Design the sequence.
């Protein structure tokens, strides 16, 4: 039950964010601040809950190689979407929003193997916080370019279901894998998350909230640190 509850809660951020963007009052600075805070929290959670645990199981070289492969994989697909497929129209936009969620949901699904909510609380909360304003901003801009409200909600709801199902499937398929196999996968997911922060989350946050984005990133980082310390009993 923990698996489905956590993934459902995290995936719901896409739907809630879309509703916020369509019906709420969403200023650029507020969107940027929340996005930066979520990015700061996600950065720390990726390092402490994915990459560091991987290093405790496999060698430093293996960990570093997996992190770089994850970052390269994200960068390559991101390039295809931006330069080849484009982000206009339904297919390109769906590909873009799905790409943003793939490394995060992969990370969450793998992190939940053999763990309960307290062990992944910081990672889950960070993904939720970063997804919320991203979906809100995306839904708002889709409406401004002529999309119908029903279509927008259907797109974001479908993306939430798709990514949530992927996280569940990855978790169940890898549940019996040895730690020596899971560790590089965690590091790979961590590298993809770091790349997504550098190319998608932080640039968007800075464009919307300018220099306060740095303060928001630090606040999110510290909030995640406090949550990790608390759940670890430190």
Sequence:
């Amino acid at each position: 039950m923990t698996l489905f509850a956590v993934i459902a809660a995290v995936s719901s951020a896409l739907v809630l964010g879309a509703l916020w963007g369509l019906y709420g009052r969403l200023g650029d600075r507020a969107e940027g601040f929340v996005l930066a805070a979520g990015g700061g929290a996600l950065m720390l959670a990726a390092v402490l809950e994915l990459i560091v645990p991987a290093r405790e199981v496999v060698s430093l070289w293996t960990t570093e190689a997996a992190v770089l492969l994850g970052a390269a994989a994200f960068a390559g697909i991101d390039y295809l979407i931006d330069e080849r497929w484009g982000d206009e129209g339904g297919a390109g936009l769906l590909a873009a929003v799905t790409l943003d969620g793939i490394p995060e949901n992969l990370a969450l699904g793998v992190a939940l193997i053999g763990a309960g909510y307290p062990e992944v609380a910081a990672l889950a909360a960070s993904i939720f916080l970063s997804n919320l304003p991203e979906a809100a901003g995306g839904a708002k801009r889709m409406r401004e370019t002529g999309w119908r409200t029903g279509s927008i909600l259907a797109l974001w709801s479908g993306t939430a279901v798709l990514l949530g199902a992927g996280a569940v499937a990855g978790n169940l398929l890898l549940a019996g894998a040895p730690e020596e196999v899971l560790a590089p996968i965690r590091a790979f997911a961590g590298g993809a998350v770091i790349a997504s922060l550098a190319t998608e989350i932080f640039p968007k946050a800075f464009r919307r909230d300018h220099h306060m984005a740095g303060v928001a990133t630090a606040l999110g980082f510290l909030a995640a640190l406090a949550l990790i310390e608390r759940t670890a009993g430190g």
Remarks:
- The longest helix spans residues 179-209.
- The chain has a mean pLDDT of 85.
